[in-house]
Amino acid sequence: MTRGRLVRITVPVVVAALVAALPFVVTDRFLLKIFTYAGLNAIVVIGLSFLFGYGGQVSLGHAAFCGLGAYTCANLTATLHLPWLVALAVAGAIAAVGGLLLALPSLRLKGHYLAMATLGFGELMNLAFVEAVPLTHGVDGFTRIPPPSIGSLVLKSPAQLYWLVWAVAGVALLLAANMVSLRPGRAMRAMHGSELGAMACGVDLVGVKVRAFVVSATMAGLSGALYASAIGFVSPKLFSVTISVGFLAMAVIGGSNSLVGPVLAAIALTLVQYLDALVPGISREAAQIVQAWEPDVYGLLIVVVVLFAPGGIGALWRRKRAGEAS
Amino acid sequence: MTWLSTGSRASHGSRSSDIVRLGELTVVVSEFLQFTVAGLKSGAIYSLVALGFTIVFAATGAINFAQGEFFMLGGMIGVWLVNLGLPLPFAVVLAVVLTACIGAAFEFLAVRRIGDGDPLRIIMVTIGGSVLFRQAALHVFGPDEVPLAPFTRGSSIMVLGAAIERQTLWIWAITLVAVAALFVLYRKTAFGKAMRATALRREAARLVGIDTSLMVTVSFALAAALGALAGLVVAPLTQTAFDVGAGIGVKGFAAAILGGLGNPVAAVGGGLVLGFLESMTAGYINPLYKDAVALVVLLGVLFVKPEGLFGGTGREKV
């Protein structure tokens, strides 16, 4: 037991140290940016896995929450010149309100209806991002968003932005891990199994669902806000339903009832998009082919994982651990 | 919106004002008719797609997120066959048949493999499938918008000042024939009764000797055929491309849920109502809002009355 406890504490610490040490090894600006993208996607997918993998609530609209957070942050910092931390907090809050609004129909809907409702929400928000030109600058995109700053400290270098994003990802992971292992997490898992069954056992379905949606939307909103200020540019294309399907693919491939699996899936699927930069010597044509076939990989992985390995990466992980224990 | 401003300026009180008013009235009427024609045209298309959703939902209890891709595949395969040199009528029929086969194959190879029939997993598989269909069309047919020739050539027909394109008449006629054929299939044939029995209670249907798996496969084939038909018949007016499936899928679903999922008559009604609403919004309020109508309807119905306009309530058991 003591050995298991030791492993449980040391492994995350070592992994966190390795993640933090990456900028000392990788100095290429573009490579660091790619790993920053991976962190931003990981934050969204942690929230989505909390909602989907544990709560069994599908969302095809998570990119819209990212968009809400991103445009809120962009307007508050670039147009109104508010402090970055304030903008970040407001961005999270607005995404949370969006999550709350979307949670309302989910109290009555389940499964397929909910999936369509979130898809409709995502499409509608994307239309709004394109058309609300004064707030979003339309399809041209919102440019010159100020970088993150805390007091007088402005985070501008790729390494600083990398650390910021992965620090937030780490906090999100810790929070989500805590929530799923405590009472709310058990209630969510009961709900995933059978809603009526959970209700009969005294689980407050309304509260559990609303909380899951709000937490999940907030994480997506924060990721969007971080994206806006770290990259400095956002456009509606980044928040389309296609992107939402990508997030869902990461969550599905990562596996239900797991947080580590989805984070690994988020990193892997993000890195695949930038294969040309990561693998030295790969020809431009080969990289373009990989990029053209990237959605195919998403689609195929979703189908294959759901059909043949419903637990995803998370289940493989657990099976291996169970094997070691016995 | 020009007629709105002239309308408000009409009361000048001169002698000729009566004639002006009569002239304006005919403009108003013909404009309303024109919007109605446009609405019922897209409404018929939404009806066909909505029927596809409804048929699969009745058979499996799940939503086929790839339904819009059948619409896309129908149009793209049709254009491809015409470019290969096939006469248009053969190309249309063959495209419908091929898409139906793709739908059946999709059910047989993927959806059926979900042993427990968990709706969540069916949704995920159809989402993954829709991505694959779209990408396959992109790789095979290319990224460009492609046109299909009108079914019959000739100028538009004028009815009370509203122009009706000949292709619109084809859309209505084909929708009518498809709905009538479905009605006959479901109500009058033993096969259709077997399909309805499967939709009603799958276990009981199997106990009386119905091959329920076959019925589910046929449902997917039918849904795919209807989607393909819609994609083909509208392609001469709108052109088509590999990425049109997602948009039409959402609209078709909005139509299906507006009527009440699982009820074919309601699906057709929902489609026509949705097309009409869209056209009126685009005509009288702002064309920018046209695409938002279906989404607002979808969310509104799901928020307020998920069982649809014509649906009853159901109870779920553990």
Protein architecture, described:
The complex is a heterodimer of chains A (326) and B (318). In chain A, helix 11 packs across helix 12. Chain A is an all-alpha fold and 326 residues long. Chain A has helices at residues 2-25, 29-54, 62-79, 84-106, 112-131, 133-136, 158-181, 183-193, 195-200, 205-231, 241-254, 260-273, 275-278, 284-292, 294-308, 312-325; strands at 149-150, 153-154. A two-stranded antiparallel sheet of chain A has the order 1-2. The longest helix of chain A is centred in the C-terminal third of the chain and has 27 residues, at 205-231. Chain A contains 16 helices and 2 strands. Chain A has a domain at 32-242. Chain B is mainly α and 318 residues long. Chain B has a domain at 47-242. Helix content of chain B is 73%, strand content 2%. A two-stranded antiparallel sheet of chain B has the order 1-2. Chains A and B meet through helix 5, helix 9, helix 11 and helix 15 of A and helix 5, helix 10 and helix 12 of B.
Distance between the termini of chain B: 54 Å
Main beta sheet of chain A: strand number and arrangement?
A: 2 strands, antiparallel
Largest interface: A-B, 42 and 40 residues
Q: Any low-confidence stretches of chain B, pLDDT <50, length ≥5?
A: 1-13, 313-318
Order of helices and strands of chain B: HHHHHEEHHHHHHH
Give the rounded overall mean pLDDT of chain A.
87
Q: Going across the biggest sheet of chain B, name each strand in turn.
A: 1-2
In angstroms, what separates the terminal alpha carbons of chain A? 13 Å
How many strands appear in the DSSP assignment of chain A? 2
Secondary structural class of chain B: mainly alpha
* Total of helices of chain A: 16
Helix coverage percent of chain A: over 70%
Structure classification of chain A: mainly alpha
Residue-averaged pLDDT of chain B: 87
Task: Work out the oligomeric state of the chains in this entry.
Answer: heterodimer
